[in-house]
Amino acid sequence: MWLYGFGKVVVGIVYHLIYRIEVEGAEHIPRSGGAILCSNHINAQDPLIIGLASPRPVCFMAKEELFHNPFLRFLITGLGAFPVKRNTADRTSLRHALALLAEGKCFGIFPEGTRSRTGQMGKLEPGTAYIALKSGVPVIPAAISGHYRLFGRIRIRFGPPVDLDRFRSARLNSETLEQASEAIMEAIARLLDSPPSLPEATEMRPV
């Protein structure tokens, strides 16, 4: 993924010039093995922010329409993205996400399925819980806050893995998926509501 490494350096330089980006809790992201980063979604640039904040490469789903353009397809595929059909139960993209996690990759997803216009979290789509329970990998909540404007501050907080053990032993049905989704949403919401931690309590660094 040479393009990912090159892109991260270039985007990091640009974003360092136009935003004040702060990262907290990156130590919660496993350094190896499959992992899911679940974040709220406030702006189209959120995947870039998560990619910059993560100590390891992150693969994302991207809407299928973006892959219709040959140049965009080359670019985002090189950055680890893969297509998803929005507003449908896209089994192909779900299987691809599970395969990536089985290979030990880090997978980023926005469980709401779309950006929030108000900053408030909406209901989570069940696909995230399905991937989490089927894969059995750690689910790391993340919360992005701030304003994407010139020299604005963007903060991303990562939290400890969401405890989903009680759902992994249950039957995988709509009720289980809904309850697991609520657990993930609550973990993200706590990061949004919590005040910044003291420097000695957790790592907080600019990108």
List keywords for this structure.
single chain; 207 residues; alpha/beta; Glycerol-3-phosphate (1)-acyltransferase; 8-stranded mixed beta sheet; globular
How is this structure best described in words?
It is a single chain. With 207 residues, this protein is an alpha/beta fold. The protein has a single domain, classed as Glycerol-3-phosphate (1)-acyltransferase (3-Layer(aba) Sandwich), CATH 3.40.1130.10. It has helices at residues 2-18, 46-53, 70-78, 91-102, 126-135, 165-168, 174-193; strands at 19-24, 35-39, 59-63, 82-84, 106-109, 139-146, 152-158, 204-206. An 8-stranded mixed β-sheet has the order 4-3-5-2-6-7-1-8, with helices on both faces. Helix 4 (91-102) runs parallel beside helix 5 (126-135) and helix 5 packs across helix 7 (174-193).
Please write out the topology.
Elements (H helix, E strand, L loop, with lengths): L1 H17 E6 L10 E5 L6 H8 L5 E5 L6 H9 L3 E3 L6 H12 L3 E4 L16 H10 L3 E8 L5 E7 L6 H4 L5 H20 L10 E3 L1
Parallel strand pairs: 1-7, 2-5, 2-6, 3-4, 3-5
Antiparallel strand pairs: 1-8, 6-7
Helix pairs in contact: 4-5, 5-7
Rg: 16 Å
Give the integer mean of the pLDDT values.
Answer: 85
- The domain count comes to 1
Measured by DSSP, the beta-strand proportion falls in 15-25%
What is the topology, as strand order, of the major beta sheet? 4-3-5-2-6-7-1-8
Helix % is: 25-40%
The run of helices and strands is HEEHEHEHEHEEHHE
The CATH class, by name, is Alpha Beta
CATH architecture classification name: 3-Layer(aba) Sandwich
Please identify which CATH superfamily we are dealing with: Glycerol-3-phosphate (1)-acyltransferase
Within the CATH hierarchy, at the fold level, what is the topology? Glycerol-3-phosphate (1)-acyltransferase
Q: Please, how many helices? A: 7
